[in-house]
Amino acid sequence: EVLLLESGGGLVQPGGSLRLSCAASGFTFINFAMSWVRQAPGKGLEWVSTISGSGGTTYYADSVKGRFTISRDNSKNTQFLQMNSLRAEDTAIYYCAKDHGAVAGYYFDYWGQGTLVTVSS
Amino acid sequence: QSVLTQPPSASGTPGQRVTISCSGSSSNIGSNTVNWYQQLPGTAPKLLIYNKSQRPSGVPDRFSGSKSGTSASLAISGLQSEDEADYYCAAWDGSLTGYVFGSGTKVTVL
Lengths: 121, 110
Fold this sequence. Notes:
heterodimer, A: mainly beta, 4-stranded antiparallel sheet, 11 strands, about 0% helix, globular, B: mainly beta, 3-stranded antiparallel sheet, 9 strands
C-alpha cells in the first residue's frame, strides 16, 4: 500500500522559513518523480514543484521560483520542500504527491493527507 | 487565473448524467495526457481519470473521460449522492514546464 506522510507545517511569520517533509512507503521511491501541490483556504489546487526520481531535475511554479527548493533523500524514501521568504499568499495545505513516472509530465497517482502552512504575523 | 478553464459548478439529480468541460491549449491538453482528480469535502484529492479516459482500480465505471484537440470532458453517469465533490482537470504544460490545473468544478447532487 502506498503511503505518503507529510510533516513540518505550522505557523510562521512573513519572511520566515519552513521545511516540509514527506515520508513515502509502499513503492520503490527512486523510480518515481515526486511533487508538491498546495491549496489555499477555499481555493483550488496549485502545482508547486516536482523533482525527478534521481533528483537531478527539478521544476518550480513561477510563484515560488527562487524562494522554494525541492529535494529528496532516496536512501530515506523522503522528499522535502524548503520554503524561504514566506508570504501570506503561501498560506495553504501542502500535499505531497507521487508522480506516475520517473520524470515529470504524467499525473499524480497517490496523494498524502496534507500539512497546513500558515504565514501570518 | 487558471491555465485550464472549467465551469465553477455543475449539478444534477440522482441518476442523471453530468458533464464537466476543461479547456486548454496546444501546450497542455493538446499535447499531453489530461487527468482528472476528485476531492471529496475535507479530504485530499484522489486520481479519478488518467491518460484521458483510463480509470484507476476502484473507480466506478460511471466516471468516464474524453478528449478532443485542446479540450477534455469528464462525465458522471448515474449520479449518486457520494459524487458530491470538487473535480479538477490537470495536464503537463510543455511551454510552462510545469503541471497546470483547472480552477475546479463543484458538483452538487440535488
